Amino acid sequence: MAGMAAKVVEAFFEAQETKATVINDTLLRVGWNFEGGSISIFFDFDEDDAHVHLEGLEYITVPADKYDKIYPVLNEINGQYRLVKFVLDTENGSISAKLDAVIQLDSCGPECFELMIRMVKIVEGAYPVFMKALWA
C-alpha cells in the first residue's frame, strides 16, 4: 500500500502540532529551526511502507575553497554519531544529514517523529563544530 505510511506519519505529526508538507504520495517535508540554524527534513517512504529514508537538506553550505577544512570534520562527526551520516555534495557545496530506518505501518507515526527529533538533536550538536571548521 504505497503511500499509506506517509499518510499515517502526516496525521501523527499534525496531532503533535508539527506541520509536514506533502510533496507526493511517498514524500513529506518538515522544516526545523535550532539554535544557530535550520534544516529541512525529507521523509521518503519505500513502496512497501516498510522503510523510510530521512534526508536533512538546506543545512550548511560550504564554499569550494573550504572543502579541505571540512572533510576531516565530516570524518570526525560521522565517527561520533552512528544514527545520522553527514555527506558533502561537491556539486552544490551543501552538507546533508542522512538516516535510514525500518518502520512498521502501525507505529510509523511515533517512529518517524522520534527519528526526526534524534536527527534534529544530532545536526544541532554538529552545527557548531562545522561552523568552527569553516570560519575559525
Question: Helices, strands, pairings?
Answer:
Blueprint: H1 4-15, E1 21-24, E2 27-34, E3 37-45, E4 51-61, H2 67-80, E5 85-89, E6 94-102, H3 108-135
Antiparallel strand pairs: 1-2, 2-3, 3-4, 4-6, 5-6
Helix pairs in contact: 1-3, 2-3
Total number of strands: 6
Radius of gyration: 15 Å
| Spatial arrangement of strands, main beta sheet | 1-2-3-4-6-5
Query: What is the share of helical residues?
Result: 25-40%
Outline the biggest β-sheet: 6 strands, antiparallel
Low-confidence segments, given as residue ranges, are none
Kindly, what is the distance between the CA atoms of the first and last residues, rounded to a whole number of angstroms? 50 Å
Query: Would you tell me the structural class of the helices and strands?
Result: alpha+beta
Strand content: 25-35%
- Can you count the helices? 3
Overall 3D shape = elongated
Order of helices and strands: HEEEEHEEH
On the 0 to 100 scale, the average pLDDT is: 96
What would you say this structure looks like, in words?
29% of the residues are buried. This protein has 136 residues and is of the alpha+beta class. It has three helices and six strands. The chain has helices spanning 4-15, 67-80, 108-135, and strands spanning 21-24, 27-34, 37-45, 51-61, 85-89, 94-102. 40% of the residues lie in helices and 34% in strands. The protein has a six-stranded antiparallel beta sheet. The model has no long low-confidence stretch (mean pLDDT 96). Strand 3 (37-45) and strand 4 form a beta hairpin. It is elongated and about 45 Å long. Helix 1 packs across helix 3 and helix 2 packs antiparallel against helix 3 (108-135).
